[in-house]
Specification:
The chain has 5 helices and 67 strands. A hairpin with a 6-residue loop joins strand 34 and strand 35.
Length: about 850
C-alpha cells in the first residue's frame, strides 16, 4: 500500500511557493453492458480489431493517419464497424480500405461517427496485423478518443461458409474492439538498464524523449534498499532551479519510494533535446545481499504525470508506454538456447541436441527444465554428455510423459562459481527420433524451474524470459513453402494462377483448401503441373472454394517449380487466392499414415496470391527509418533544395536506369530512396526496382510524395523487398511481402525481425520508442562500413555543403558529427543483403 505522504511547500530564492505533488485528475469510467445470450452459442470468435493511435500529433491542425488492423481474421464474409470520435478534437477527412475488399464502404457523413461495412460472397482470411482500413483525421487539440461503438450490432462480424453467414462471438467486447487515441502525449521517461554495476557509487541517468513545452512534472520512483542506498542527484540545467528529490520513504519490505518534482512558472515551459538526461540519481551499490534491483515507476493513478504550459495534464495511458522501468545489477542471467533442427535423422541414428549458453560468468548454481514431445522423440537412459567443468555434479532427470504427451527434462547443479566462453555447451542430449513430424523444445520458465544463481547463491535477473531462454525444435522434415502467384489480367480472359513450391522434398501426400471471390473469378479447372504421378483430385464444392488432394511419391521438386495451375475465367475486379489452413485445411506428409509435416505458423508456409485488373499498378506501402537523420520519432528534412530533382541512383553501384524526376521536391521529404523487389533472397531474382521519396515519418512514396511506391506492369505477388539508400547499409524484408494494388503496410521500423538477417546490418536507433533503422556510414555502398568510407569520402568532403554520400546525417553539410556520431560508431558493420 502506498504510504500517506505529507504535502508541503518548498521555498526557493525567488520566494515562489512550489507544491511538491501534482496529482492526476481521475476520470470515472462507467462500465457494464450486459448481454442476454452466452458466448458459448457461437462456434468461432470474432477477429480482434485495433484502432491505431497518434500520440504525438502536431499541436495545430495537421493530418494524421490511423490504421485499423485485425488479428484472427479467418473466413470472414461480412463485417460492420462503427467508430465514434469527438468532433471538437479531430476532424475526419477520409479513409482507404484494404484492396481485398472490393466493395468495402467507409461512411463518415455523420460528424462524430464512421461506419465501415463489407459483404462478400466468400470467406476472407488475412494475416495477423493486416490493415482493414486506414483513416485520416485532422488533429485540433486535446485528447481525441477513437472508440468502437459496441452496443447492439454497431460492431459485428460474420463467418462465410457453405453459402451461409454465421454471427461470430465478440464477447467480451473489450477483448475484440481495441480503441485508439489522437493527442499530444506525455514525454517518455526511461530508467536505465545497468547490468554490470560494481560495488560503490553508481549513477542512474533518467532520460526523456518528446519533452516539449513542459511546465511541471511529478515522478514516483522505487528501488530496493538492500541493493542501492540513495546519495544525491544532479538535475538538467534547464530545470535545476526548481527541481526537487524528496527523501525516500518505505513502501514495504526493503523497497523505498522516491518523489521527484519540478515546476516552471515562466509560461513558456521547457523543451529538451531527444534523449536528454532529466536528472542523474547517485546511489551506493552493493551486491552483498542481492544481485539486482528493478528501478520501477510507481503510478497509483496520480503519482506520475506531466503538465503543459496551460497546466493540462498530458496523456500517458498506459503507464508502461510512457514510464519505462529499468534495472541495476552486477550481472544478469546467462542466455540459454535450444537448437532448431529441421532435418533430424530417424532412428537408429541419434540426434544431438546441445544446450548452449552465453554470458555465463561466476555462476554458482543452475536449475533448467524443458519439455519435448514423447511421440516424436525419446531419450535413452544416460544419453547425454555434460560439460566437464561441472565435474559430474550435474543432476539430470528425464520425467515420463504427462497427460499432454510431453516429457520434461530437468537439470540442476551447484558448486564453486564457474565461467564459460560464449556459445559453450553445458550439456548435449542424444535423442532418438522415432517417427516423422516435429517436436517443439520449450523451456519451462515458470517459477524457479529455470534459474541461475550467482556467487553467494543469489538469483540473477531473467525478465523478460524470452530474452534469456530461446526455445528450439527437432523435426525430421519441414513442410514446403507453397505460394499462389499473383496475376494481373484483363477482364473477360481465362487466367492461370500458378502455385509454386520451395523445399519440396520426399513428399508423399498433400491436401489444400483455397478460397477465391466467385464474383470476380469463375472456376474452370485445376491441373497438377509437376510430373508427380500418384492420385490427384481437385473439386469445387461450392463457389469460392477449392479442395485439392494428392498422394503418391515420395517426390521432390526444384525450388521455384510450379506444382499446380489453377484455371479461372476473370470477370474483372480483385480476388485473393487464399489458403484456408485452420483445422487441417493445408498439410503435407511423407505419405501413408505419416504425421503432417511441421508448418507453423501457417502464414509462413502458405503464401496467398491475387488476381487483379492489369490497369491497377502494384503499390508498395513501406515504412523505414534512416539512422543518420533520425531524431525523436521522425527524420530531418534538411537537404531541402540541394536534393536533386532526378533520382540519384543511375550511377555505380546501383546502375538503376529509371527516369523518375520531379519539378519540385515533395514536402517533408528526407531523401530519395531505391526499392527493389525479388522473388527469393538472391540478387539474381530481382524483378523490378523503383526510386521514390522517403518522407520524414518513414513512409516511402512515389514521386508524387503522397501515394505508395508504384511498380507499373509488375504482377501482384509475394516479394522480398529491398531498401537501398546512398549512404546507409541496405536491408531486405525478413520474408516475402504480399504486394498488390492496395498492399498492407510493411513497417521495417518495428523490430529486427522485420529485416533479413535481423540485427546484422540493422540496428535499434531509438530504445525509448523501440524504433529500428538502417545503419549510417556506407558512403561507397560496398555493403560494409570500413576505412575507405572515411578516407575516400568523409575526409575528401569535409566542410562541404552539398548533396554528398559522406553527409551521413543528411543535414546538407559534411562535418565532424558525420564522423563521430555515425562512421566511427558503426565502423565494421556490414549489410546482410545477399
Amino acid at each position: 500500500m502506498l504510504p500517506s505522504f505529507q504535502f508541503f511547500v518548498l521555498k526557493f530564492p525567488d520566494v515562489i511557493p512550489l507544491p511538491v505533488i501534482i496529482m492526476k485528475t481521475k476520470t470515472a469510467l462507467l462500465l457494464g453492458l450486459f448481454w442476454l445470450f452466452a458466448a458459448a452459442s457461437f462456434s468461432q470468435d470474432a477477429p480482434v480489431v485495433s484502432s491505431g493511435s497518434a500520440l504525438y500529433a502536431a499541436k495545430t491542425f495537421s493530418a494524421v493517419t490511423i490504421p485499423v488492423s485485425v488479428k484472427s481474421f479467418t473466413d470472414i464474409g461480412y463485417f460492420q464497424l462503427t467508430m465514434n470520435y469527438p468532433v471538437s478534437k479531430v476532424t475526419y477527412q477520409g479513409g482507404t480500405g484494404n484492396a481485398v475488399f472490393g466493395s468495402l464502404t467507409i461512411n463518415g457523413s455523420t460528424p462524430g461517427t464512421i461506419t465501415i461495412t463489407w459483404t462478400g460472397t466468400y470467406g476472407v482470411t488475412l494475416p495477423d496485423g493486416s490493415n482493414l482500413v486506414v483513416l485520416t483525421f485532422t488533429y485540433v487539440s486535446g485528447v481525441a478518443d477513437l472508440t468502437w461503438a459496441t452496443s447492439g450490432s454497431s460492431c459485428l462480424f460474420k463467418k462465410y461458409s457453405g453459402g451461409a453467414f454465421t454471427v461470430l462471438n465478440d464477447l467480451p467486447k473489450t477483448d475484440h474492439y481495441k480503441n485508439g487515441v489522437v493527442t499530444y502525449a506525455s514525454p517518455v521517461v526511461q530508467a536505465p538498464y545497468i547490468d554490470n554495476a560494481q560495488n560503490g557509487t553508481v549513477s542512474v541517468p533518467i532520460t526523456v524523449t518528446n519533452y516539449t513545452s513542459i511546465a511541471a512534472g511529478t515522478l514516483y520512483f522505487s528501488y530496493d534498499t538492500a541493493v542501492l542506498t540513495y546519495q544525491s542527484f544532479v538535475a538538467h540545467p534547464s530545470v535545476a532551479g526548481y527541481f526537487m528529490v524528496g527523501s525516500p520513504q518505505g513502501i514495504g519490505g526493503s523497497r523505498k519510494l522516491m518523489v521527484i518534482n519540478w515546476m516552471d512558472f515562466s509560461g513558456l515551459g521547457v523543451t529538451l533535446p531527444y534523449g536528454s538526461i532529466l536528472c542523474t540519481l547517485n546511489f551506493n551499490f552493493s551486491n552483498q545481499d542481492k544481485t539486482y534491483t528493478t528501478l520501477s515507476w510507481y503510478d497509483n493513478g496520480g503519482s506520475c504525470s506531466f503538465n503543459d504550459v496551460q497546466w493540462n495534464q498530458l496523456y500517458d495511458t498506459p503507464q508502461s508506454a510512457f514510464f519505462k522501468d529499468g534495472l541495476v545489477a552486477c550481472s544478469v542471467s546467462p542466455k540459454t538456447l535450444l537448437p532448431v533442427i529441421s532435418n533430424a535423422p530417424v532412428s537408429p541414428l541419434s540426434t544431438s541436441v546441445p544446450v548452449k549458453v552465453s554470458g555465463f560468468s561466476n555462476i554458482a548454481s543452475l536449475a533448467l527444465s524443458f519439455s519435448y514431445d514423447a511421440s516424436v522423440m525419446t531419450l535413452p537412459a544416460g544419453a547425454y554428455t555434460v560439460n566437464s567443468i561441472f565435474a559430474g555434479a550435474m543432476a539430470v532427470n528425464n520425467l515420463p510423459p504427462g497427460p499432454d504427451g510431453k516429457s520434461r527434462i530437468t537439470m540442476s547443479w551447484s558448486g564453486s562459481p564457474k565461467t564459460l566462453p560464449d556459445n559453450s555447451e553445458i550439456i548435449s542430449f542424444n535423442f532418438n527420433v522415432t517417427g516423422g513430424g516435429s517436436s517443439a523444445l520449450k523451456w519451462n520458465t515458470g517459477g524457479d524451474s529455470c534459474m541461475y544463481k550467482w556467487t553467494g547463491l543469489k538469483p540473477l535477473w531473467k525478465e523478460p524470459v524470452s530474452n534469456f531462454y530461446q526455445d528450439g525444435l527437432v523435426g525430421t522434415h519441414l513442410a514446403p513453402v507453397t505460394q499462389a502467384v499473383a496475376v494481373n489480367a484483363n477482364p473477360g480472359q481465362n487466367v492461370i494462377v500458378p502455385v509454386k513450391v520451395r523445399n519440396f522434398s520426399n513428399i508423399g501426400a498433400f491436401s489444400f483448401t483455397l478460397a477465391y471471390d466467385p464474383a470476380v473469378l469463375n472456376y474452370l479447372t485445376t491441373a497438377l503441373a509437376a510430373p508427380l504421378g500418384g492420385t490427384f483430385t481437385a473439386s469445387n464444392p461450392e463457389p469460392g472454394l477449392l479442395s485439392i488432394v494428392w498422394s503418391g511419391g515420395p517426390a521432390g521438386l526444384t525450388d521455384g517449380a510450379t506444382l499446380l495451375n489453377l484455371g479461372f475465367y476473370f470477370n474483372g475486379g480483385t480476388s485473393g487466392i487464399q489458403w484456408l489452413c485452420d483445422g487441417g485445411g493445408c498439410s503435407y506428409s511423407e505419405g501413408g499414415s505419416s504425421p503432417s509435416l511441421y508448418d507453423l505458423p501457417k502464414s509462413q508456409f502458405y503464401l496467398n496470391g491475387t488476381v487483379n485488373n492489369s490497369s491497377i499498378d502494384l503499390n508498395a506501402q513501406l515504412k523505414v527509418f534512416l539512422e543518420g537523420p533520425y531524431q525523436s520519432g521522425s527524420m530531418g528534412i534538411s537537404l531541402g533544395s540541394i536534393m536533386p530533382l532526378t533520382q540519384p541512383y543511375s550511377g555505380s553501384p546501383w546502375n538503376y536506369a529509371g527516369t523518375e524526376s520531379v519539378t519540385s521536391i515533395p514536402a517533408n521529404s528526407t531523401d530519395w530512396i531505391l526499392v527493389e523487389l525479388r522473388t527469393n533472397p538472391w540478387a539474381s531474382s530481382k524483378v523490378a526496382a523503383r526510386a521514390g521519396f522517403l518522407k520524414n515519418d518513414g513512409s516511402v512514396t512515389d514521386i508524387d510524395g503522397t501515394t505508395g511506391l508504384r511498380f507499373p506492369g509488375v504482377a501482384y505477388g509475394n516479394y522480398y523487398v529491398v531498401i537501398k539508400h546512398r549512404n546507409h547499409l541496405a536491408i531486405m524484408s525478413a520474408a516475402t511481402v504480399t504486394l498488390n494494388g492496395g498492399s498492407a503496410l510493411y513497417d521495417f521500423t518495428t523490430g529486427s525481425a522485420k529485416a533479413y538477417g535481423g540485427t546484422t546490418g540493422y540496428k535499434l536507433i531509438d530504445g525509448t520508442l523501440s524504433k529500428w533503422g538502417m545503419v549510417a556510414g556506407d558512403a561507397n555502398q560496398s555493403k560494409s562500413i570500413y576505412i575507405d568510407d572515411y578516407t575516400d569520402f568523409w575526409m575528401r568532403d569535409f566542410g562541404l555543403i552539398q548533396y554528398l554520400p559522406s553527409d551521413f546525417n543528411l543535414n546538407g553539410k559534411v562535418y565532424l558529427d558525420d564522423y563521430t556520431d555515425f562512421w566511427l560508431v558503426n565502423f565494421g558493420r556490414s549489410s546482410s543483403l545477399p
